[in-house]
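Thread title: Can someone regenerate the structure for this chain?

I was given the following input by a collaborator and told the matching C-alpha cells would be attached. They weren't. Posting the sequence so someone can regenerate them.
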Amino acid sequence: RETIAAFLANGSPQLAFDSLTNPERNTLRHLAPQMGAGWVKLQKGVHALVKLSPVDDPAATLARLVGSVKHSCAANGGKCSASVAFRSLPAELVAYTQATLRLRSLK
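Best answer:
Regenerated them for you:
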C-alpha cells in the first residue's frame, strides 16, 4: 500500500518494477486497481504501475476502448482473442479498465 500511495503522490505516469517475487507482484497487482492505479506487464519480468488519467467523459473513454479493441482485431485479420486485444491496449486504457471498470481482462 505504501509503494502504491507513494507512486500516486509523485508526478510520474508509470513506475516500473523488475525482479519482484511472486508475493510482491501478486500484492501489487491486487491492490493497484483498488487504490486507483493500473498494473501492466511491460516485458518478461518487468511490470509497472500506471496512473489513471482523469476522465471527463466516461462514454468517450469507453468508445476509445472499443475502438482500440476493434483496431487490434482488424490488424489481426478481423479476429483476435480477448487476451491479445487486452495486451494491445494503451497503458492508460488498461489502467481505466482495471481501476474504474474493475476488469482484469476482456473475457
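Strands lie at 14-18, 37-43, 46-51.
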